[in-house]
Each structure stands twice: as structure tokens, then as C-alpha cells.
Specification:
single chain, two-stranded antiparallel sheet, globular, five-stranded parallel beta sheet, about 170 residues, about 15% strand
Length: about 170
């Protein structure tokens, strides 16, 4: 079986610009996307300028908790030198999400007949990762997930007991 890979930029994809509030924030659905990768056996890779400073990506991975939540895939660092597109494994079944691509990178994708594996993300769309998940499902010919197989033994996802809601004045469900 051909290995499945997902390449992800960070700025403009995971971290987006909120024009309304003039701030940056995380895109919605990152955890769900990493769970999607785990279920479908897709290895995610960071393909970003951040890859030139691996310590920042190690910190980012820790912040986003993929090791703690064993239900999620953990992105690896994809190093690259001249062009992100030249770092892609074109022998794999892959997808790539990016908020900007230059002509040279697009030419590399064209030379591999892989432009349909590229998902352009507008850097202000907080739902880009959710749309990318559906794009990935279609491009990699994956079935819809009917059962996300929650790990109720994990304290981060265990439902709160009914009594807890009565004892606490307010909490976010």
C-alpha cells in the first residue's frame, strides 16, 4: 500500500489572521484533523518556514498535545531547502495545504501531475482545516468516518458525570 502523507503550512493555515478583531488565532478543527489522520493512517508533516527552527515546532507540537492525546496523529518536521514543493514525496498518496505558492512551486507540482493534491488556504479562513479534511477525504478516496472511536479512558475526553454539573456554578460543555 502506498503511504499516505499530509503536508501542512503553519502561518495562514494553522495560524490565521482574524480581520475583524485584528489578531491571530488558531484555525478550528486541528484536533479533529489529527484524529482524522490517525484513523486513516495518514502521516502529517509540517512544511513551513518554521521547519528551519525545529525547536519551535517541538514546542508547537507540545502545545497542541498530540502525544498526550494518543488518539491524534503527530506531525513530523519536513525539512526543505530551496522549495517546499521539492520536499514532497511524490511517490506517496499525498495532499498539501498552503496559504501561498509561487510559480516555481506550482511548476514542480505540474511536473508531477499533482496540482489536484494542492489545497490553497486563504490566511483569514478559520475553518480552512475543516474544509481541508473533506478535500483530503476526496483526494485520497477515503470513506467518511461514522465512528470516531473515542477513547473514554483518556481523561481529556471522558464525559463529566451528571453530578458535576449540579455542583459547579458554571462550566463550558
Amino acid at each position: 500500500m502506498t503511504q499516505r502523507k499530509m503536508y501542512m503550512d503553519i502561518d495562514g493555515v494553522l495560524i490565521v489572521w482574524n480581520e475583524k478583531y485584528q489578531c491571530i488565532e488558531l484555525s478550528r478543527g486541528y484536533g479533529q484533523l489529527m484524529r482524522f489522520c490517525k484513523i486513516h493512517d495518514i502521516q502529517p508533516y509540517w512544511l513551513s518556514q518554521w521547519c528551519h527552527n525545529p525547536e519551535t515546532l517541538i514546542g508547537l507540537n507540545c502545545l497542541l498535545w498530540p502525544r498526550t492525546a494518543g488518539t491524534m496523529a503527530e506531525p513530523q518536521i519536513q525539512s526543505w531547502k530551496n522549495s517546499k514543493a521539492s520536499a514532497i514525496d511524490y511517490d506517496s498518496d499525498f495532499v498539501w495545504i498552503e496559504d501561498g505558492i509561487d510559480d516555481d512551486e506550482m511548476d514542480i507540482l505540474r511536473s508531477h501531475n499533482a496540482t489536484d493534491r494542492f489545497f490553497w488556504c486563504h490566511g483569514t479562513n478559520p475553518d480552512a482545516l475543516l474544509h481541508f479534511m473533506e478535500f483530503t477525504r476526496k483526494r485520497l478516496s477515503l470513506p467518511k468516518i461514522d465512528n470516531w472511536e473515542s477513547d473514554w479512558d483518556n481523561p481529556f475526553v471522558a464525559p463529566l458525570p451528571e453530578k458535576f454539573e449540579d455542583e459547579v456554578g458554571g462550566y463550558c460543555r
